[in-house]
What we know:
Elements lengths: L2 H7 L1 H4 L22 E5 L3 H6 L5 E5 L2 H4 L7 E3 L5 H10 L5 E5 L5 H24 L5 H11 L6 E2 L12 E4 L9 H5 L6 E5 L2 H7 L6 E4 L6 H7 L5 E5 L4 H4 L4 E5 L8 H8 L10 H11 L5 E4 L5 E2 L14 E2 L2 H16 L4 E3 L11 E2 L2 H7 L7 H10 L9 H20 L5 H9 L2 H18 L6 H28 L3
Parallel strand pairs: 1-2, 1-4, 2-3, 5-10, 6-7, 6-11, 7-8, 8-9, 9-10, 11-14, 14-15
Antiparallel strand pairs: 12-13
Amino acid sequence: MFITELIEKCPEAFLGKIKRKRKGFVPFSIKEEGIDLFIFVGFEKKILEHYPDKKIIFLEPDPGVMLGCDCKDVIFLSEDYTQVIKELVWKYALKKKQFFCHPEIDRAYFNKLKAFYEKTELGRHLSISDVSDFGIRAFRNICENLSFFSSMKNGKRLHHAFKDVPAVICGAGPSIKDQIQKIEKLKDKALIFAGGSALNVFAKEKTLPHFGGSVDKIAPFDKFKEHFGYLIPFFVQLRANAENLSLVNDPIVFGESNKNLFEVFLEECFSISSFSSGWCVGNFLTQVASFLGCDPIILVGMDFSYPKDQKYADSRKSSKPVVTQNDFIMAKAWVKEFANSSSNTVINASKSYGGDSKLIDMTLDQVIESVLTKTFDLSGMVHQKINQQENDLLIEEKKVLVRLLKSLNNCEKIINTFYKKNKLCREKLEQEIAYRYIISPIWNIFAPIIVSYSEDKKKRGFEKKIQETLFFQRIIKLYITEIARFV
């Protein structure tokens, strides 16, 4: 049997073990100024020779090409390259970069990889922006909201409570303005969810959805008072604006998104397990509807783009070009990923998003005519399912905060001897709850930005130690001051 036939029959066994060389190409002159990092998809040794002074990373999907390669910056890309890309994005957070595709690499593959890198980088940027105050605003809201935590209901107890009931998720995009009267007539055909500014659109029509929601840590109190959404069952995360949440009659709480700040703190101290909230309240309510068992899920007013100066449906009219913003780009991407991975049928009755997705594009009229054909006693169902739920959220927030404050003071003492007994101090520090709940999660976000990457390993280790110590001291002081306000 020929070797080629063996490879065809057993590609996994043979393909990566056969050394292959690319045909090669003549490196071109790169004219771009100020580029710190070149990322080539496809390894080519001539590029290293042509640009000896440039920082270059090669992403190579063919293991055969990498055999015998002595370049430390060639990274193998398996079929699932997501983790590799995420690590690169965080490691080279501040570097200005440029992508290049080797002529022998499939262009569609290159475009897909580059798009994922850029989306991950945008997500990193938004994540850092969200905690630009080191999480103080969100933590303050959590502490204030915990003061009436025992009156909240645990959202996790509503799993599949509304199985196979259709859900309409309402955003505040300009397109909802023409649909709001139709949505009002659907209250016996689908559960209506609206959060944030969408509640103000409902208020102008003097009507309310079945459920409201909020995740924004900063939201105008005056605008919140206008819509009376606090009179209905209201899905929230504890990071939501505390002043607004103090008005809500029937709050139903869910945890923080996985790997978000304070996720571990809320789960271990208050038994609120993590819950994906996406990038906006519309994403959060979509996930809630899925958790409740709703199907299909219909998106209305979730445009994620808008005429300039007319961001929401209750903004003044504008004839200026349509624009979007970074969090909307990520929120739209989240919807597509949700539609692709969820067992729910997801129908987009907002503006079409385009692209490769299992989202079904329909007008609201088409949805009403062909999808929402059954009727339900939804007011009675909501009343029964929500009111029969016991308040099982145990509350000892003062005791928890006192323990946290004590742990922060311990951390401060440990940090003061950080240089003398580094290893011993590290072990002691990692045992403190304040380190696990606050210091470490914040450091993990900022470390790629703060830590310098010196070529000298000894120098790099020393610099990291100084930067880490100063950062820890600053975080500790901030949170000691913040928690002292509550205890």
